[in-house]
Amino acid sequence: MTMRIIRGWKGLSQDDQGASIALGNFDGVHRGHQAVIGMAAAAARDLGLPLGVVSFEPHPRRIFQPDAPAFRLMKPDQLARALEALGVDRLYLLPFDDEMRELSDQAFADQVLHQGLGVRHVAVGFDISFGKGRSGSPRTMQAFGAALGFGVSVAEAVGEGGGDGAGDSDGKLSSTDARNALREGRPDLAAAILGRPFAIEGEVRQGRQLGRTLGYPTANVELDDYVAPRFGVYATRTRLGDGRTLAGVANIGVNPTVPGEIAPRLEVWLFDFDEDLYGQVIETDLIAFLRPEAKFASLEDMTAQIDDDASMARMILSAG
């Protein structure tokens, strides 16, 4: 069964109501998020209900901190695919607009969850806040559920027991930790938190075509609203629209060797591949950080380094 994406909470049909839902932003769908979804799934099985996830678009942080740096770990379509892979039946993408931001915690529980979505069970994380002024908490959600007739389960913190540094100082996994790991050039740590490699998805756009001239044709994708990983060179795997997955090496940054300013972007060279990808959407996993972005004295120096980077990336990817 294909997951349904439902945009909004007003005027829903009975077929779209009555689910057991996990509530949160779920940017990254990391392992802590998966624990919340797992609790909603358990209730769905026990009660014979569809499994739903309620999230918000745009992300509330974009509204409350409009001048903050880009921070997203996922685009909405990536979120949908990740949730469908977890067995979610319905994704409720609620508009975080002026009306939503003015709802109190009680009004949100009553008008949105109870009357709008008709939820039968709500699973939340231990640190959730909701409603105007972020006044709502797991405890208030439990009180609202008791009053309005829906069950509530609260997931505890999920930490990383492997000793690799994943998780914050309290031991819990968070989207913030994943973002920080990427900013530090630790895609391996981000993957441990997320349960999968961080991936940049976007349309391939025409660049300055210098790479093709030098024998290293790259597919260029803007970072847009993604969190900016540490600028530098990465071993990568890229999924094409037709399902093929190709190894490669990518630079993330502004390519300071070549004159002219560009917005930060992903420029990925796909090994043993020479097809036109302009206008197509690709998704590139960051597997390993190789080195920081550098400015070279000459194009000859740059191409020599690209050869070394490619050799290192091939070795890492073949071992993995």
Characterization of this structure:
- This protein has helices at 31-47, 60-64, 76-85, 98-102, 105-116, 138-148, 175-183, 187-194, 210-214, 299-319, and strands at 4-7, 20-23, 51-57, 90-95, 121-125, 151-155, 199-203, 218-222, 232-239, 245-253, 265-270, 281-292.
- The chain is an alpha/beta fold.
- The chain has a 6-stranded parallel sheet, with helices on both faces.
- The protein is elongated, with a radius of gyration of 22 Å.
- The chain starts with a strand and ends with a helix.
- The model is unreliable at 161-165 (pLDDT under 50).
Q: Give the strand tally.
A: 12
Proportion of beta-strand residues = 15-25%
- What structural class do helix, strand and pairing data support? alpha/beta
Whole-number radius of gyration? 22 Å
Shape: elongated
What is the straight-line distance between the termini?
A: 33 Å
Sequence of secondary-structure elements: EEHEHHEHHEHEHHEHEEEEEH
Mean pLDDT: 91
Number of helices, where a helix is a run of at least 4 consecutive DSSP H or I residues: 10
Q: Report the major sheet.
A: 6 strands, parallel
Poorly predicted runs = 161-165
- Name the helicity range: 25-40%
Could you give the order of strands across the largest sheet?
1-4-3-2-5-6
